[in-house]
Amino acid sequence: MERHSVELQKKLAGLLIEAAQVSVDLDRLNGTIQGVPHYSVIELRAHELGRQLSRQIQQHHMAAVVNHHVGRARCPACGTESTLEAVKRPVTSIDGPLKLQELKGSCRKCRRSFFPSPGTAGL
After folding, report:
1. How many domains does the chain have?
2. pTM greater than 0.85
3. Residue 31 DSSP symbol
4. Per residue in 7-49, pLDDT tens?
């Protein structure tokens, strides 16, 4: 287990280095960075890449929560068991807009939609 963790940490470090280099290359290619930029410009570009990574991590974590959750839940109004489906909804995080997956139930008896309690989804 620890060996796998070390391998994943090395892989992440390599991917971050590669992402940084690709970002710098793209900034130079598309003209966002020209000549010798002020350091604040470099810092802003770095923060934008960090926000992009943050949004991807948020999406992956929520997809994992949805994928590991049970496929059925009881309607909070009447208690009828309903099938849950994964849906995406727009969210604005501190790092910008993204679409997160969440579970949605539709009760045939009540004819209402509901979302399982965050506690039961591991949130």
Report:
1. 1
2. no
3. T
4. 999 999 999 999 999 999 999 999 999 999 999 999 999 999 9
